[in-house]
Amino acid sequence: MKAVIISGALAQDHEFIYPYYRVMEAGFDLDVCIIGGKPVLGILGTTLPPNKNHKIKDINEINPKDYDLLILPGGVKSMEKIRQEKKLINFISEFHKLDKVIACICSAAQLLISAKIVKGKKISGYYSMEDDINNAGAIYTDKPAVVDSKIVTTAHYKDMAPWMEATLSFFK
User: Cβ–Cβ contacts within 10 Å for residue 51, how many?
Assistant: First the structure.
């Protein structure tokens, strides 16, 4: 099993770190893709990825066909920048077309909206994004883990445990 976390500068630190370690504990081979290809600081000042020895890939170095799981951490400041990266948006869209599992938390729902993969789906995201999610044709749902087809979302890092449990249940 192979997973990839895609993120950027000013991501929400714990929304990156918790799934980072959780998927490795579950036996996944994990790649980290940081827009720009270098370590960045999270909004709280943690170096991402937290392990200095973890090789970082740029968006040009990854292919959706190579992964079983895509993890999208939130962080509104991060999303403002990385959602403008067309290769990232295309990666998400292609990943979804391949019917693979996407785990998305908090403001990263903006990436799902930009990839145009939410129409008709129950999706969670940060509470202030309810209108954005509904306006994109999705159904805003505020539960600890919202699963619709192979998209697993949650609104807030307080629900990371049920969110990751629902995500990893696809691989048991």
Answer: 14
What average pLDDT does range 105-115 have in this prediction? 98
DSSP-derived 3-state class of residue 1: coil
pLDDT at position 148? 98
Q: What is the pLDDT of residue 53?
A: 85
- Structure-block tokens of residue 156: 């807030």
Maximum CA extent, the chain:
41
Residues ≥6 apart with Cβ < 8 Å to 148: 121, 122, 123
CA neighbor of 163 nearest in space, from 104, 92, 95: 104
Three-class DSSP category at 168: helix
Is the pLDDT score of 52 beyond 90?
Answer: no
Give the Cα separation of 152 and 133 in Å (integer).
Answer: 14
Residue 82: count of CB within 10 angstroms of its CB: 26
Q: What is the pLDDT of residue 92?
A: 98
pLDDT, averaged across the chain: 96
Give me the residue spans of the domains in the chain: 2-171
pLDDT at residue 84, as a whole number? 95
Q: Does domain 2-171 have CATH number 3.40.50.80?
A: no
